[in-house]
Amino acid sequence: MAKNKSEKCPYLSGYGGGYIRPDQWITEHMCSLIAKKHSRELPDRFWVLPEWATIFRRQVALAAGLLHFFKAEAVVAALRDKKLWNCYSFLGLCQISTFYKILNDNQNRLLVEESAAEIKLELSPTDAVPKRYTRNNILARLNKIDGQKKRSRPS
Q1: pTM
Q2: Is the pLDDT of residue 129 over 70?
C-alpha cells in the first residue's frame, strides 16, 4: 500500500491504507459486501486482522484473475448491481452466468464513454439558414409572375 498515487497504485483505499492496486480496490468492495451481509462494519486496515486476512488474500488473487479481461471500474459496477445481491465471493460470482453478462455490459459502457471523450464535435454557424427550395412547376411560375405584377403596379 503506497502513500503516493502512482500508475501501479491508482486507487485510494476507503479503509486507511493509502493508495492501493486495482485488485485490492476491488477486494475492498467485496469485503465490504461480506461485512454488510453479517451486519458488521469493516475497521481501518481490516486486512491485517486474523479473521479478514485469509479472506482478503484469497479474494485478491481471484480479483487479479478478473483484471486480465476486465477493467476495475467495470468489476466494481458489477458488484454494485442489484441482480448480484447474494454473491459474496469472486469464486461464486464466476459460476453465475449473469455475472459475466453484467460485467460485459459495464465494460462496454466504460469503453464507449472513453471513446466518446475522444470525439470532437464541430460547431456549424447557425446564422446562415438555407433558403427554401421552390419547385419550378406551372403554379410556382404563375405565383412568381403574379408577385412581380403586384410589385410593379403603381399605387
Answers
A1: 0.70
A2: no
